[in-house]
Amino acid sequence: MPTQRISNLALPLETRLLKRLLDLGVVIPAMIDIHSHVLYGVDDGAPDQNTSLELLRMAAQKGTTDLICTPLVLEAGKGLSWATIMAKTQALQQLVTQDGLKLKLYPGAELEFNWDLIELLQKGSRDYCLAGSRYVIDLPATTVPNHMSDFLYDLELKGFVPIIAHAERCQALMHQPERLLRWIKKVPQ
Predict the structure, then answer these.
(1) Residue 77 has pLDDT above 70, yes or no
(2) Angle value at C-alpha 137, between 177 and 95, nearest 5 degrees
(3) Which of 30, 35, 147, 151 could form a disulfide with 65 if both were Cys (CB 3.0 to 4.6 A apart)?
(4) Strands 161-164 and 31-36
(5) pTM of the prediction?
(6) Does residue 167 fall inside a structural domain?
(7) How many domains does the chain have?
(8) Mind listing the pLDDT tens digit for each residue in 16-56?
């Protein structure tokens, strides 16, 4: 089966570098997926156990060794609890192990931009963070509120490092990418 070459110009710099290393025959010892929707039946990701396992088999075949399960958490107190995310991640890990996959799963969450969700993230706690780290994934809405800088700043004050998921899907950021640059540089708007 012929392989399709992807134009390097269409890829981000990190992807081009990784692609070049692979082309040179460099073996990458581990691949870590920090954002996935493989927990079945909890969000718009995998609908059932079989789909989860199939997705995880494909990830393992492509070299993924570690994967953080990041289901959507949309409303504080009304969506998935951290205990549920932990339990579902552990249950899926058992299925992965039984299936013989060499893949380690970790709990996390993809949090919607929502002031109520800041209350879920307590200073010193690692609930809803990626694999027990200080990193949290934040999903911007289709529009970016003017106070997004304040939201990100509040996360940082609590000791968290925000990661913005799917910035490429946010039309407001596509039309004003300088906003994203200001957040990265921590320049007030």
Answers:
(1) no
(2) 140
(3) 30
(4) unpaired
(5) 0.77
(6) yes
(7) 1
(8) 666 676 677 665 667 889 899 999 999 888 999 999 999 99
